[in-house]
Amino acid sequence: MATREELNAARLFVEKANRLLKSTFLKEAAVNMGWTLSGKKDEAVRIEHRGPRWENVEAFVLTFRFFIQDNESISIRNMAKVFSSDLATPGERRRFYEIRESLNKYLDGSSMFKEGARTASRREVMDVFIYGGMSHAKPKKKEKFDAWMRHVLLGPMTTTEFTTILSTVLSAIENIQRICVTLLYRYA
């Protein structure tokens, strides 16, 4: 039998996912995201980030953190409790774990940025932005974030990579949300 805690987690997951899916960040990311490289002879090369405005990214991340911080009942890791319970059918359970595994594989994959001989993972890029530049200032992550942002090419490129990562994680959140809606419908 499903517990109140599991049902509440599924409801909150749907609620917070809806907030992200209606965000200005998402609307702006859908229009024109990327970076532009330009320059003229005898001038420095310029690179500019195109995409969501920074304040919209910050607003998005405020809610987004519910899905990645394990102190939240609806973090993707903690949602395994919901999908491991009798609340979920075997098919829903399997689909959740497929989504989670695919997301982890994506996040642990290589970003486009090398640091010396090492390539930063997408998870690292996400963590540096969120925990070094936006919502916290963990010293090592803050130092790395500041170094990236000072760099004429790396700043805009990592910002674009970060917004792409957020959009990809949101796709996984949306897929999990659909499963949660089905679960909740059964128990309504």
UniProtKB/TrEMBL annotation:
This is Uncharacterized protein. It comes from Botrimarina mediterranea.
